[in-house]
Amino acid sequence: MRATARARWRLAPLGALLLIAAWGAPTAHGAEARLRIVATLPDLFVLTRAVAGEGATVDLIARFGQNPHDMEVRPSQILLVRRADVLVRNGLEEDAWIDVMVNAGANPRVLRGSPNVVDASQGVHILKVLTGRVDRSLGDVHPLGSPHYTLDPDNVAIVTANIAAGLARAAPESARAFEANRQALLERVAEADRRWKAALAPFRGTAIVSYHDSWPYFYRAFGFVEGGVVEDRPGIPASPQHLAALIRHMREQQIKVILHESWYPSDLTARIARETGAKLLVVPQSPGALKGTEDYITHLEHLVSALANALK
Ligand SMILES: [Zn+2]
Predict the structure, then answer these.
(1) Range 11-19 average pLDDT
(2) How much distance in Å is there from the Cα of 175 to the middle of ligand 1?
(3) Burial of 159 by CB count in 10 Å (0-12 exposed, 13-18 middle, 19+ buried)?
(4) For 116-161, what is each residue's pLDDT tens digit?
(5) What is the CA(141)–ligand 1 centre distance, in A?
(6) How far does the centroid of ligand 1 lie from the alpha carbon of residue 277, in Å?
(7) Cα 244 to ligand 1 centre (Å)
(8) How far is the CA of 84 from the centre of ligand 1 (A)?
(9) Which pTM value belongs to this model?
(10) Superfamily for 2-189?
């Protein structure tokens, strides 16, 4: 049934939420207090941590390796939001559940529209923006275009500029430190990106299929072509017609690799791989899902080398 695939979040038992609401107003912070930052998703978390450096606490709402399109709202998350000075969010509804937490946490500093809320997507050229009516009742989880923009290393400069500006608004005295941290990160990313582009250069123009529509920015960055997506639309399971057409297309185009995001069950993708002779490559879509990939560079490094090995 299609409805089971829609983007969803569930609330923890009501009693737990009421308990949090009873804890009184969020505490005010003096200028001397450590800045408390909350990031919704792992990609934003690792970039925020790199910009914030030692002078701030950064917490992550979604767990490493957790599918952000399927979240359960827990009291511990509401508490983090309640205490936050700054909130870093995706901006394209990848983390729409954060609004539930912000409302439950009753922290005016991180309400939508507050200067302490960073929309990390500001200024990014968004791919796959839908035209016409977007019907979320059908389960589409990318209502404002593809939210997976940090998978293009070129977007790191824009995203971290948004983060640094937001942190500086909350802690102007640390603005220079944030910018210095950001520049150091950008240098390391630029150096790594040259290596990644060289490693994937032999495969430019290769068509790749994926389970979820996670990779448009990654494909563009490294010269791949989208060969199809197993889900009918983001968050919507494949219909038999869609699957048949995809398998036919993969055979005709001799597509060699299917990227499968590790937080989805892989049975269907494995079956398509068997039927088409393509290689099933299970990869994490965001940092931290695998040991040793807890920052931006190690995560991308893992994706690039897994793909280069699979295409060899
Ligand atoms: Zn997605």
Answers:
(1) 57
(2) 32
(3) buried
(4) 999 999 999 999 998 776 666 556 788 899 999 999 999 999 999 9
(5) 6
(6) 26
(7) 23
(8) 26
(9) 0.91
(10) Nitrogenase molybdenum iron protein domain (3.40.50.1980)
Q: How far is the CA of 304 from the centre of ligand 1 (A)?
A: 19
CA of 145 to the centre of ligand 1 (A): 10
- pLDDT, residue 236, reads 87
Homologous superfamily assigned to 192-311: Nitrogenase molybdenum iron protein domain (3.40.50.1980)
DSSP codes of every residue in 158-198: HHHHHHHHHHHHH-GGGHHHHHHHHHHHHHHHHHHHHHHHH
Amino acid occupying residue 260: H
Burial of 248 (0-12, 13-18, 19+ CB in 10 A): exposed
* CA 140–ligand 1 middle distance (angstroms): 9
Distance (Å) from CA 228 to ligand 1 centroid: 15
50-88 b/e (C-beta count within 10 Å ≥ 16 → b)? bbbbeebbbbbbbebbbbbbbbebbbebbbbbbbbbbbb
What is the mean predicted confidence (pLDDT) over 12-16? Answer: 58
d(CA 126, CA 43): 16
Domains 2-189 and 192-311 share a fold: yes
Burial class (CB in 10 A: 0-12, 13-18, 19+), 218: buried
Domain ranges within the chain, ordered by starting residue: 2-189, 192-311
Which of these, 289, 135, 118, 123, lies nearest to 214 by C-alpha position?
Answer: 289
- The alpha carbon of 283 and the centre of ligand 1 are apart by a number of angstroms equal to 14
Mean pLDDT of the chain: 90
